[in-house]
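so the lab meeting is tmrw and i was supposed to have these ready like two days ago... anyway. pasting both below. for each one the top line is the aa sequence and the line under it is the structure tokens. i havent really looked at them closely yet so no promises
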Amino acid sequence: MQTSTKSNIRTFPIILCALFAALTAVCSAISIPIPFTPIPINLATLSIFLAGGLLGAKWGTISQVVYVLLGAIGLPVFHNFTGGFGIIAGPTGGYIVGYIAAAFLIGYLTDKFIFSKDNKTSAIYVKLILSMVAGGILCYTLGTIWFMKLTGTSLIPALLSCVIPFLPGDLIKILIASFLTKRLKNFL
């Protein structure tokens, strides 16, 4: 009986990684195209914020690596049910790769500065929001540099088409993810 319990505890993070990879796929697949940008609106970043906040640096990163690998081998997990290495190698691929970096950074910050100490509730929310903002900035930075390199677009037009339109939605996603992370972290 003791061995079975230890085995279940070890497999639980793996199950959570699979669930968050699936959640990212679902949140990515259903997209709303915007006419002036190649990047659609979807809920993928909500999943990234939750993966980093709830699973931490190691497991949050692994969940997003799994997601990206599933898409790279051709499963339709990217926007509008697309898949394949061509999507990752294309102009929006940097944002997809940025999911991995963002999950790691959010997880690292939450592991080190939020859930490793006894914090007051209000301080936890502020720190969660700041860690998710940092992860979002990292994702946008990697994705925008990638987009600029592949399309030859300069910085201001790239920001106007690939970042600025998505900031209000990402702020809402960050607020939702920080609330859910604080509420769900104790259960995990």
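ok protien two:
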Amino acid sequence: MLELRPTCEHCNQALPPASSAARICSYECTFCATCVATVLANVCPNCGGGFMPRPVRPAHNWKNGNCIEQHPATAKITHKPVDPAAHTQFAAQLKTIPPERR
């Protein structure tokens, strides 16, 4: 189950569970859409993968207790700002390769 991390790892912007601005890689590294587009060039600084919009957990218990109330988001903040110069070098070799082929 996704942790639904509360903030962008780079800029620390709040990304509440229902945020449409949250982006995750396949390892659940979490960044805001702005950082993914302007700083990261859609290259995860932790694994080199691409990003997708993070799903939103249902707010209501529509079926079998599968909702944010029964399965809350984590409160643990992961704040690891990216070194823009180092990431630019790292991303240069990957950003032209589609994420599904990395």
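from a quick look at the 2nd one: The chain has a mean pLDDT of 97. The CA atoms of residues 50 and 75 lie 24 Å apart. will dig more after coffe
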